[in-house]
Structures are given as C-alpha cells and as structure tokens.
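Hi support team,

I submitted a single chain yesterday and got back a structure, but I'm not sure I'm reading the token output correctly. Could someone confirm the output below corresponds to the sequence I sent? I've pasted both exactly as they appear in my results page.

Thanks,
R.
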Amino acid sequence: MQLKKLNDKSIDQLFEAILTLKDVEEAYVFFDDLCTVNEIQSLSQRLEVARMLGKGHTYNQIESETGASTATISRVKRCLNYGNDGYKMTLERLGRFGNDGKAEDGATKE
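Hi R., thanks for writing in. Yes, this is the structure output for that exact sequence:
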C-alpha cells in the first residue's frame, strides 16, 4: 500500500473528512472546494475505467467511451490485477463490478 507508507496526519485528516460526508450533494460541495474540475474528472475517469474493465470491456471500447489513454487504462488494469483491491471493493459495494471480480483478460487478483 503506497499511501500507507506516508503515514501522514494530514492524509489521515483528508480521508477522515471524506468519511464524514453524508451524501453525494455534500461530496460535490467538499470536492468543489478541494479539487479542480480536471482532478475530479481524472479520478472519476479512472473509476469508470475500472468498472468497464471489470465488466470485460476492451481497451478500444474503454478508450472510445471514456477518452482515457491506453496508459491510464493499463495503470488501472494493473491496480485491478496486482493492487490492493480498492477499485473492486468500492465498485462491488456500489453493485457495479461484474464478471465475478475478473478483469478484462479474465484474470483475478490472487
């Protein structure tokens, strides 16, 4: 876990602040102050790429629908296959990760 290595109180504060948000409207208010529009779009694009990979979409489909670069798609795929399962965990909680947790190539994280 790369972020955990930082073990920084200001990062803890950020995550604790996010956990206090009660609904999507509060999230919009908080993130509008916290991030630029481009930063939010980049984060949401990565999550959408993860969702689409989880549903078995191809790189071409994902690139076409999201505008994500192949580098971004590859990075997200690497996280899905070898990361901490953060994408999978949150998308499953949202009911949006498919194919029994398998990524585009059918591989699962062991």
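A quick pointer for reading it: Confidence is low (pLDDT under 50) at residues 101-110. Let us know if anything else looks off.

Best,
Support desk
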